[in-house]
Amino acid sequence: MKSALIAACVAAVVSAGSAVAATRLINGHLIQNHTVPATKLTEAAVASLRGPPDHDGTSVRFTLVKGPSITVPPSNTDAGQSSALCPSGSYPVGGGFIVTNGFDANPVVLASTEDTSDGKTVDGWDVEIGNSAEGGATMPLTFHAWATCETGGGPITLPGS
What we know:
Layout: H1 2-25, H2 43-47, E1 61-66, E2 70-72, E3 79-85, E4 90-101, E5 107-115, E6 124-131, E7 141-151
């Protein structure tokens, strides 16, 4: 009985000491900003995360939009165009393209620029690519445009429009 009581007392002292040591070793001031991954947060904490507010107090969000896949045969005159259009109320902040097929192709980028459906407001990303037979292309290539669209920051207009 005496040894069980001693063991219980030792266990209580060790566990209390460990809890005190943990509060001294780790506290909110010692954790660097942006170092706790979302996998270590509760679901409620993750749900409450928001981006920085923009000028009207809403959060700015980003979406990656993919344009249609376009196949371009080897040619010295033909090119294909793919447009990635942002959802209504969002605007592109960048864009580009990915060649997804074309082992023996020779892509020639003719244009990679913002899209303006109305001639003034930027609303997507356009890409035009050729497949130069003169440059050695013997097979078709397939590509698609993409746009990174933001919501919450307001429309982007071209200078002088």
